C-alpha cells in the first residue's frame, strides 16, 4: 500500500488548497489525547502522589532535568511548559500510527487516514519553525534587541551569512530528523502487515513476531525522538537567552 494521504483539493476540487486531511485529523486527535491525559493527571492532586499523578510528576521532573542541563534554572524555568508540551505531544503523535499500523495500515485503501501526524514533514517542519522563531523571540525579550543583534555579527561581521544559514539548517534538521524516523518506521511496519495478509494464515503467524518486535522498537524510537526534539529545543533556546554562549 502506498503511504498516501487525502488532500483537501482531492475532495473539494480546490486546486490551491492542499491541506492534508489525515494529518490535520490526526493532529487534532493527538491534541485531544494529550489534553485528556493532562486533565486526568491533574484532576485529583494529592500531596503524596500515586498512580497516574506520580507518573506525570516524573515526566515533569524529567523535563526539568533537560532544562537544567542546558541552561540556568532561573532563566530556563519559563520554558518548562514548552518542553513538557512538546515532549508529551510529540511522543503521543509518534506512537499513534505505530500501535495501530498493523490494523489500519494494510487494508488496501487508496489513502491512509490513520497514521502518526509526525510522519508528515509538514507538521514536523512547522514544529521546528515554531521552536526556532520562539528562540529568537525570547532571545530578544530576555537580552534586548541590541545585545541580541550583536550575536549575529560576533566575533566578526562577515560571519552573519553563515549564522543565517545555521538557523535555516537547524530548522530543517530538527524537523526532518523527527519526520524521517517516524515515517520510515511506519512504512516498514505497513509493509510487514501487508506481507502478513498476502498468503493467508501461515504468513500471518510468521509475520506476527517481526511486527510485534518492530512495534516495540518503534515505540522506543518514538520516545527517543521526542526526547531529542525537546533536548535540542532547549539547547537552541539556551544559545539565544544565555549571554555566556
Automatic annotation (TrEMBL):
GO annotations under biological process? Answer: proton motive force-driven plasma membrane ATP synthesis
Keywords, comma-separated and alphabetical:
ATP synthesis, Cell membrane, CF(0), Hydrogen ion transport, Ion transport, Membrane, Transmembrane, Transmembrane helix, Transport
What transmembrane ranges does the database entry give? Answer: 20-41, 78-101, 121-140, 187-211, 217-237
Pfam families noted in UniProt: ATP-synt_A
Q: Which InterPro entries match?
A: ATP_syn_F0_a_bact/chloroplast (IPR045082), ATP_synth_F0_asu (IPR000568), ATP_synth_F0_asu_AS (IPR023011), F0_ATP_A_sf (IPR035908)
Q: State whether keyword Transmembrane applies.
A: yes
- Which GO molecular-function terms appear in the entry? proton-transporting ATP synthase activity, rotational mechanism
Cellular localisation: Cell membrane; Membrane
Keyword Transit peptide on entry:
no
Topology of the protein relative to the lipid bilayer: Multi-pass membrane protein
Primary localization: membrane
Q: A GO CC term?
A: plasma membrane
Reported function: Key component of the proton channel; it plays a direct role in the translocation of protons across the membrane.
User: Member of which family?
Assistant: Belongs to the ATPase A chain family.
Protein name (database record)? ATP synthase subunit a
* Source organism phylogeny: Bacteria, Bacillati, Bacillota, Bacilli, Bacillales
Gene label: atpB
Amino acid at each position: 500500500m502506498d503511504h498516501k494521504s487525502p488532500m483537501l483539493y482531492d475532495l473539494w476540487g480546490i486546486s490551491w488548497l492542499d491541506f492534508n486531511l489525515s494529518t490535520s485529523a490526526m493532529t487534532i486527535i493527538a491534541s485531544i489525547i494529550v489534553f485528556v491525559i493532562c486533565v486526568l493527571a491533574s484532576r485529583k492532586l494529592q500531596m503524596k502522589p500515586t498512580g497516574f499523578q506520580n507518573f506525570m510528576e516524573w515526566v515533569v521532573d524529567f523535563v526539568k532535568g533537560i532544562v537544567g542541563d542546558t541552561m540556568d534554572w532561573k532563566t530556563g524555568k519559563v520554558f518548562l511548559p514548552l518542553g513538557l508540551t512538546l515532549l508529551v505531544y510529540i511522543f503521543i503523535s509518534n506512537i499513534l500510527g505505530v500501535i495501530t499500523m498493523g490494523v489500519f495500515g494494510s487494508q488496501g485503501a487508496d489513502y491512509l487516514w490513520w497514521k502518526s501526524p509526525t510522519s508528515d514533514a509538514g507538521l514536523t517542519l512547522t514544529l521546528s519553525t515554531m521552536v526556532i522563531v520562539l528562540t529568537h523571540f525570547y532571545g530578544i525579550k530576555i537580552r534586548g534587541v541590541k545585545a541580541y543583534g550583536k550575536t549575529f555579527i560576533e566575533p566578526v561581521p562577515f560571519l552573519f551569512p553563515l549564522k543565517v544559514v545555521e538557523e535555516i539548517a537547524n530548522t530543517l534538521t530538527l524537523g526532518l530528523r523527527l519526520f524521517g524516523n517516524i515515517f520510515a518506521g511506519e512504512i516498514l511496519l505497513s509493509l510487514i502487515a501487508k506481507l502478513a495478509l498476502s498468503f493467508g494464515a501461515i504468513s500471518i503467524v510468521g509475520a506476527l513476531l517481526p511486527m510485534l518486535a518492530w512495534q516495540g522498537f518503534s515505540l522506543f524510537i518514538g520516545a527517543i525522538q521526542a526526547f531529542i526534539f525537546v533536548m535540542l529545543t532547549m539547547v537552541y533556546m539556551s544559545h539565544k537567552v544565555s549571554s555566556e554562549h
